[in-house]
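Structure first, sequence second, as always.
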């Protein structure tokens, strides 16, 4: 595959989905940079995972290493603070009815993508790549493709340039995400994803499971574990995109 010269900025949290998206982008674009957001997460595991995943991918895949450019970490703690100050109860690990931690701020992806679009403009990167998925996260209205289509239109008008929001996992299940990882980088990429990507809402890096590390009980861990179990039961298939 001849890589696109448009350049991509990957919204990279260090979780499973954005790890697979980063590999997906490195396979398709000749220039890939990553952006992460510090919105006052209570744990640093996510942010630490980002650098570990990048380093492991670059070490294991020389072609990807040549394409992988800078990482950017943007401080948007003022936005994260809205979630904290709006709480009326102690929300240590509380999950809302939508299956989200109660500290999550509504419209988070709209803010992330707007920051990412401004950064991509400055970096000369055309496409924004994100792991948003409406299959498993029906509770996240700002993850839906219809929302992102509207935001893409707004960004094109507001920036007066051809920006695209690319979401390779939008209609994929969590089992299919493992299959895409297998197709992109085989067992090596599976191992990098298991060992280094971080999904757990609680932020712990133990205990260790076949599918990675995490508490194993929060909604994020449950989703990841269930997707892994399905993928393994299917015989660890590979999806070639
Ligand atoms: Zn967990």
């Amino acid at each position: 595959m001849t890589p696109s010269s448009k350049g991509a900025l990957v919204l990279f949290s260090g979780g499973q989905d954005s790890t697979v998206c980063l590999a997906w982008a490195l396979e398709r674009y000749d220039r890939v940079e990553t952006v992460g957001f510090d919105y006052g997460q209570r744990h640093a595991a996510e942010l630490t995972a980002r650098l570990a995943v990048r380093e492991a991918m670059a070490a294991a895949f020389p072609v990807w290493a040549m394409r992988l450019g800078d990482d950017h970490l943007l401080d948007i703690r003022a936005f994260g603070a809205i979630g904290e100050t709006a709480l009326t109860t102690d929300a240590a690990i509380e999950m809302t009815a939508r299956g989200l931690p109660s500290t999550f701020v509504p419209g988070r992806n709209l803010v992330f993508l707007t920051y990412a679009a401004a950064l991509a403009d400055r970096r000369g990167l055309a496409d924004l790549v994100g792991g948003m998925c409406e299959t498993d996260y029906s509770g996240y209205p700002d993850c839906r493709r219809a929302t992102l289509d509207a935001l893409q239109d707004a960004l094109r008008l507001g920036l007066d340039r051809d920006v695209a929001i690319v979401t390779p996992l939008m209609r994929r299940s969590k089992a299919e995400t493992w299959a895409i990882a297998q197709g992109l980088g085989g067992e090596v990429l599976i191992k990098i994803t298991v060992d280094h990507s971080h999904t757990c809402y609680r932020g712990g890096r133990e205990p260790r499971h076949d599918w990675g590390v995490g508490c194993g009980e929060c909604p994020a861990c449950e989703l990841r574990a269930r997707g892994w179990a399905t993928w393994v039961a299917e015989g660890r298939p590979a999806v070639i995109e």
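Margin note: Residues 134 and 140 are 8 Å apart (CA to CA).
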